[in-house]
């Protein structure tokens, strides 16, 4: 089969990744009309529409989404192969990390990490909203917990168990009974960065959904956990993010924690997985994860 024009594929992949012709044009440093023309060229090549309109938004079809994901992986492979051919060795690993995980688990260990990795520099980029690596070409790897879903061209290596459960101050927890329905008297603290976390806990723990008297949302999990520490209500937390609070008695888990099947994974592009720097980073994460 004749391959489609690569410039058209590049523009199409950028539109799907950004969800916007304007943002794609900004990334490619062209005008919006040029991106639209490339999309039209690609649709002409395949003889089908690649997007449907939802108001002002362009929504890729299911087949187009799959093609965009494969295209992104292919471009990543080409870019890294070109760097190798030119003898360009990345000077550091830009690592995207969920904000709460970065603050409460990774940063207390960062000196040990740097000692262990030697000359390998890891640039830690906190992520308020945890998104797959293919959404972030500026990053080399990301750490993901229950959010991880397999993707073409991405290798994920698990390094630590992922447990989560409701947490509150000891004073608030003392007002609860053994029945999780008692949480309904408290304010449910939620994070817009992980909007389905409570729903997932109800399903995975086998607990009937609770009708809370009040719900308060925060922009990210760090703020929701800070509100829980202040006694505002009850939050759902990954254990790795509040281990110190549990040890100091600032927070307690009245209904314990349950394990998540996916655990925490280091996700990188498949060509990078066997590179010495990524292998060393994964080895360090595994050692610390087992000790946690």
TrEMBL record:
Keywords, ordered alphabetically: DNA-binding, Transcription, Transcription regulation
A GO molecular-function descriptor: DNA-binding transcription factor activity
Domain HTH lysR-type stretches: 4-61
GO biological process: DNA-templated transcription
Keyword Lyase: no
Superkingdom assignment: Bacteria
Protein name: LysR family transcriptional regulator
Source organism (scientific name): Rhizobium phaseoli
